[in-house]
Write a structure and sequence with these properties.
eight-stranded mixed sheet; 6 helices
Amino acid sequence: MKTLETERTILRTWKIDDIDDFYEYAKNPNIGPSAGWKPHENQDVSMKILQSFIEKGEVWAIEYKANNKVIGSIGAHSDEKRRGVNGKMIGYVLSEDYWGQGIMCEVVKEVIRYLFDEENCEIISCYHYPFNIQSKRVIEKSGFQYEGTLRFASKIYDGRIYDDVCYSVMREEYLDRKQR
């Protein structure tokens, strides 16, 4: 994965040495359920997921420049709902200690720039659960347009099923905003 940089962060490939930082935020009960995953019960769980991040190469570690700590992640994955289109679906998570500071908007905008300018994507999508208002704000501030809600769409780790609130930004929309 290419290393990307924003004013306050470095988006980079995960390293095994990131395990402590990853586990620190992944065990927080306010983090995982908002993204559909169970809070990590121990570092072994975090290590397995960290190794998959490294192997697949689809998820950046978000390193905060001020303290060189990994404070979250952002991934750019194939969008299974848009087969045959050069599109990506992004998903992200941020340590609760860094919420409300505009960091994730900064990161999402850089990933959008990269995917359109360097990977030539045609469309980028992003989803959130209806109760995740913080993610909704990040998505909207980052230039995504509301598409609709896919009802009863995602079964999470505890068996509950949630709607997916769907957003996207098309290449043309991005280029129009960039020229203004």
